[in-house]
């Protein structure tokens, strides 16, 4: 029996190794090098399993490896599939309040849309508990978003799904991110 390796996200690390490595300093470079060695061993596994078609395409284009897609499970009770939700003029973003997510761009898009369509609501559902070092960025977002975008921090899974089910649009501004959504 072949023991498969599950690839959550084979970062663009393989095609941009040196430029990414140069962004790190001292001990972070050492951690980067160790992780790089581990990742290169993982991708030489006889069988890879990944979490989405997007990741399968990234693995194929960056490390020339094929992956079988196995989607992560979502518990039916989280979705409350028996409930009817009417879609609202709501645009939602989901993710930690960290700079690579480009929430400032999300807010700028919201401002432009609201100039023409004041009935459209914008919400960002983001985590702060695990991103406390990003408080200066979060404060900047609070200032930018005043009256335009509601910033929701560390909401429950139920509340997150309730909001997502009502949204007409989910907007994700981070580049090369591995998102999984139900459509």
From TrEMBL:
Which InterPro entries does this entry report, sorted A to Z?
A: Glyco_trans_1
Q: Name one Pfam family in it.
A: Glycos_transf_1
Source organism per UniProt? Stygiolobus caldivivus
Q: What is this protein called?
A: Glycosyl transferase family 1 domain-containing protein
Q: Which Gene3D superfamilies match?
A: Glycogen Phosphorylase B
Lineage, top-rank taxon, reads: Archaea
Q: Which residues form the Glycosyl transferase family domain?
A: 85-176
Q: Name one GO molecular function term.
A: glycosyltransferase activity
């Amino acid at each position: 029996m072949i023991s498969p390796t599950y690839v959550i996200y084979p970062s663009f690390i393989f095609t941009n190794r040196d430029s990414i490595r140069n962004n790190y300093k001292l001990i972070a470079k050492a951690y980067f090098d160790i992780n790089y060695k581990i990742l290169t061993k993982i991708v030489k596994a006889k069988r890879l399993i990944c979490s989405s078609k997007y990741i399968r395409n990234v693995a194929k284009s960056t490390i020339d490896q094929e992956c079988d897609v196995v989607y992560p499970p979502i518990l039916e009770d989280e979705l409350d599939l028996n409930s009817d939700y009417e879609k609202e003029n709501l645009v939602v973003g989901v993710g930690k309040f960290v700079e690579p997510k480009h929430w400032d761009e999300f807010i700028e898009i919201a401002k432009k849309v609201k100039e023409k369509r004041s009935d459209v609501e914008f919400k960002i559902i983001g985590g702060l508990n695990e991103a406390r070092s990003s408080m200066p960025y979060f404060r900047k977002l609070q200032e930018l978003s005043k009256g335009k975008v509601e910033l929701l921090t560390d909401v429950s899974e139920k509340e997150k799904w309730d909001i997502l089910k009502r949204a007409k649009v989910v907007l994700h501004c981070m580049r090369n991110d591995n998102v999984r959504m139900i459509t």
